[in-house]
Amino acid sequence: MDAADLRIFESVARNGSMNRAALELYTVQSNVTARIRLLEEELGATLFHRHHRGVELTAAGRRLLPFSRQMARLLDDARTAVKDEGVASGPLVLGTLETTAALRMPNVLAQFTVTFPKVELVMRTGTTASLVEDVLQYRLDGAFVAGPVTHEDLHTETIFNEEMALVTARRFRSVRDLAQTGVVKTIVFRQGCSYRARLESVLTRLGLQVSTPLEFGSLDAMLGCVAAGVGVTLLPKGVAMAASREGRVALHELAPDDAFVDTVFVRRHDVYASSAVNAFLAIARPVAMPALASA
Asked: CATH 3.40.190.10 occupies which residues in the chain?
């Protein structure tokens, strides 16, 4: 068993098909099939159930899978480390919250892409839960998520500090006006958003009943619904400031315990921190300072 065998095994497991794995690995199906059979013979265990729709992992295959992924990642890290001579270059896949992408990333990206043109940067948005999972599963080199995050496999660093605000339709002049409505519908990102739980907690302490939330995937849609009086949401103040200035929504300050949320950068301890990752963070950290001073 060698690294190539494990890479083929991982591709077959992920694709659920010998043929699709062969296409991904730029080889022929007969080669993939032969390598899997030799691997099964060497290990003395059947790794896949074969059927007309493709293949499924056996219990033994499921036990082997995490090791194959770790090996693939170690090989990628080894290649990156050997080629990394201190100048940021090559692929960099990062995740970020939708709100952080809108509020913090434009200035960071503008500077980073000009300063480090050889980096092949990909930014993906998601909720805190989904982004943390993607980092843990080696799908992202790192991610900006809402803190705190505690996990034995993750290194975390606070990068930004956001002042939150309760965002409502303009007709609500104060939180007290909102409390008189009795039942409130929340406008939130999909399940896994850390702001969602905080919003429900704030409304509960105000004595409000929270009805079934409306889930959206974009800030514009959320602010549009709030402006139309459909419900309320919780967002970093900077994200909703423009809509407030335009007279579309009202922003309400929160108690200190609810008002501030750290945005932390998470990455795995066991993954090589490339020059590209370090260069991105070196730019992001100074960008945070003016916003913190004005908050």
From this structure: 90-161+261-294, 163-259
163-259: CATH homologous superfamily? Periplasmic binding protein-like II (3.40.190.10)
What is the rounded distance in angstroms from the CA atom of residue 80 to the CA atom of residue 82? 6
Contact (Cβ atoms closer than 8 angstroms) between residue 243 and residue 170: no
Please give the span between the terminal C-alpha atoms of the chain, in angstroms, as a whole number. 56
List the CATH code of the domain at 90-161+261-294: 3.40.190.10
**What pTM value is reported for the model?**
0.77
Angle, helix 29-43 to helix 18-25, in steps of 10 degrees: 110
The CA distance from 52 to 93, in Å, is 36
**Contact assessment for residue 55 and residue 49, using Cβ atoms and an 8 Å cutoff:** yes
How far apart, in whole angstroms, are the C-alpha atoms of residue 88 and residue 116? 6
For the chain, give every residue range classified as CATH 1.10.10.10.
Answer: 3-83
Q: How far apart are CA 290 and CA 9, in angstroms?
A: 49
* Distinct helix (H) and strand (E) counts, the chain: 13, 13
The predicted-structure confidence for 108-133, as pLDDT tens digits, reads as follows: 999 999 999 999 999 999 999 999 99
Distance CA 78, CA 3 (A): 13
Which option is the CATH number for 3-83: 1.20.1260.10, 1.10.10.10, 1.10.3720.10, 2.60.120.10? 1.10.10.10
Residue 277 has pLDDT above 80, yes or no: yes
Interacting residues of 258 by C-beta distance below 8 A, sequence separation 6+: 164, 198, 201, 202
